[in-house]
Amino acid sequence: ADENARVSEMMGAAMAAGSEYVGMEPLVSTGPRSGVPHGTWRRRVMQDNDPVFLEMSAAHDRYHAAMMRSAWLGRPPAIAIEMEKVCQEALQAALDAIRPGATCEAPHLACQKVIDRAGFTENFKKRTGYSIGIAFAPDWGEGGILSLYSGVTTELQPGMTFHIPPALRIYGQFTVGVSETVVVTETGYRQLGSLARPLTLL
C-alpha cells in the first residue's frame, strides 16, 4: 500500500466517526521522509523496514484534538526503539506535571528532563506542547497563543486544552513520537484520545 491509501483510511475513519473538515492536513510520511518535520503523503509505496510517522486531528463543532503515533514496517533499529521509549516516558512526565496553578513551563521542563537524561537533547529542540481548540485552516492549533515551553509562566487553569507531542528525529532517516490532547481539570488533566500509545509494528 502507499501513503495515500493510509491517509485515505485515516481521514475516512475520522469523518465516519463524526469529524468535520480539519484545520490542517494529516502529517503522514514513510521511509526517510519521515525524518523531515511536517512531511505529508506523496504516493510513496511503503517498503520493508520503513518507519511510519502519523499525526492528524479531528474536529467537532470546530474544536480540534490532535494525535501523533509511530509505526514501523518490520523490525526497527535499536536506536529507534530507544528513542520511542523515551518519547513515551517524556509524554507521561509532561502529563504528570499538568495541574491548575502550575506554570506552562512545568510540563516542558518535566519532558525535557527525561529527554536530556536519555542523551537526546540535540534531537529535541522545540516546545513540548501548544494550546489547541477552535480552529480553521491553515492550522489545528492556536499558533503562538500559549506554549508549554521554557520561560512561559502563565498558570494552567481548568478548561485550557493542549496538544503535547514529544518527538525525536534523526533528520532524513526517521521520526518517532507520541502525543495526546488533554484538557486541564480541577485535579489534573483529562485525556481526549483513547488510541494505544506504543510503537506499532506492522
Automatic annotation (TrEMBL):
The keyword Hydrolase applies. InterPro entries: Creatinase/aminopeptidase-like, Pept_M24, Peptidase_M24B. Gene3D superfamilies: Creatinase/methionine aminopeptidase superfamily. Signal peptide: none annotated. Pfam families: Peptidase_M24. The keyword Protease applies. Residues 10-186 form the Peptidase M24 domain. GO terms for molecular function: aminopeptidase activity. Keywords: Aminopeptidase, Hydrolase, Protease. This is Xaa-Pro aminopeptidase. It comes from Klebsiella michiganensis.
